[in-house]
């Protein structure tokens, strides 16, 4: 697990109880956060990097905060990392930079090691996730953010507004427009 591989210097600054709480927290959010990042990046290596980077930032800066504050802080950090990734991916595409074959192989090994589903279950899950990614990609970035935070992660309007750095009214508007668009897109897909 990533948490155990994280920089020991960071981990040593927290107590044993905090380490265990952080490990438990990471276990709870890892897969869902990974899926959220996967929807945005469509690349498992980049998605994993974003989630791990967000967790490392949480540990560095907020490990001493009360544990009930970690979840919104983590998702705020993750959303900022995703925004940065979008900015850099635009620059990378302009400069024609790409990942090496070695990075792709490492990414594939991680996926194989982390799957606990049967091949049939994994295929069904992948097809569902692919359809979800395709439909969500047709929404604007802010609408996707809102859907993922409000519906996928279950944050309330106030928390979502704080994470997205916008007003509560904007969150409601983005969510309403996103759900209407999703309804139309899913009806067209059927």
Q: What is the global morphology?
A: globular
Query: Major sheet: size, sense and barrel closure?
Result: none
Number of strands: 0
**Low-pLDDT windows of residues:** 97-102
Query: Alpha-carbon distance between the termini?
Result: 39 Å
- The assigned structural class equals mainly alpha
The oligomeric status of these chains comes to single chain
Residue share in β-strands: under 5%
- Count of the domains: 2
Number of helices: 10
Cα radius of gyration in angstroms:
17 Å
Question: What descriptors fit this protein?
Answer:
190 residues; mainly alpha; Arc Repressor Mutant, subunit A; 10 helices; 0% strand; 2 domains; single chain
């Amino acid at each position: 697990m990533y948490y155990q591989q994280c920089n020991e210097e960071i981990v040593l600054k927290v107590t044993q109880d905090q380490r265990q709480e952080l490990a438990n927290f990471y276990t709870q959010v890892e897969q869902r956060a990974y899926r959220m990042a996967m929807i945005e990046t469509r690349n498992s290596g980049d998605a994993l990097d974003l989630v791990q980077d967000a967790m490392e930032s949480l540990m560095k800066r907020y490990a001493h905060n009360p544990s009930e504050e970690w979840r919104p802080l983590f998702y705020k950090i993750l959303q900022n990392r995703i925004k940065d990734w979008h900015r850099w991916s635009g620059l990378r595409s302009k400069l024609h930079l790409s990942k090496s074959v070695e990075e792709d192989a490492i990414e594939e090994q991680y996926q194989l090691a982390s799957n606990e589903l049967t091949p049939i279950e994994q295929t069904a899950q992948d097809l569902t996730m692919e359809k979800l990614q395709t439909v969500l990609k047709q929404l604007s970035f802010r609408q996707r953010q809102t859907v993922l935070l409000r519906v996928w992660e279950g944050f309330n309007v106030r928390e979502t507004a704080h994470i997205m750095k916008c007003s509560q009214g904007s969150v409601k508007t983005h969510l309403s427009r996103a759900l209407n668009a999703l309804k139309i897109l899913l009806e067209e897909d059927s």
